[in-house]
Amino acid sequence: MLERLDKSQIFDSEKSYARVSLSWKIPWSVMAPLSLLLTATAIRLYEPAIGTEYRLQIFDRYQQLSPRVPTDVPISIVDIDEGSLARIGQWPWPRQQMADLVDELTALGAAAIVFDVLFSEPDRLSPARLAELLPAGATFDDARAKLRDLPDNDQAFASAISNSNVAIGFALTPDPGPRLPELKPRYATKGPAPDPYLLSFGGAITALPVLETSASGYGYLTHTVGTDEVIRRLPLFVRVGETVYPSLAAEALRIAQGASNHATKTTDPASGNTGRAGLINVRIGRLIVPTDPAG
């Protein structure tokens, strides 16, 4: 049975509820750390430029105080040093010299040979190119003909590359170029396509087509630097136009292991795995490399 209440009873009830509500307060011991936590979270999510700079300086300091412990790695660096320049001559060396270097490293059992040098122009020391520098006239016709009959340096380099596991590179540019680099490996994706999360570039300075086709691996060799000109990140993938390309480092790991492609794992907030959309890791052969959302 319903009981009818008069207005005075209703108002008294509301006043009692208001007194109870106002008497409940959050203790300062809880409020202070909670406020600090919320402030820190907001700063991290919407980080101002000065906050980013300060955080990176702290990161650099940690690296100086406790650097990574050196470990033995199966990598040898063939450096173009003063001794090499004195013995062989000024850089750039003839591509025939580079071909001989590839043949020798291959004979020594190199699993992968990586050139972090851009071979975008024909070798100016190729015999046919030297023939063009000779003065016009019958006096040099015989020498010109003999030079043109000699093997082309770029073709010799391409032949050596095709008989080994060699990775070469291309440079990224903000503006579109004459053509896009040849895409060597495809990549498989677990999750959404990684394209929207990657650093984007308009074009590239590519290697010579004859070298590009002969190489087993082909990746970008451009480094991205921070506002203070320090390299702290090495993206494994970038987007050039509408195509995703691997880095030269990723390609070196791939061909050294005899892998045919790369595999990316991505997520988005709807998946429930993380609050941030983007890449999680990249599988290169037997290696799984954790990444930030931009790869």
TrEMBL record:
SMART domains referenced in this protein's UniProt entry, alphabetically: CHASE2
Every CHASE2 domain range: 51-295
Pfam (any one): CHASE2
Record's protein name: CHASE2 domain-containing protein
Organism encoding this protein: marine metagenome
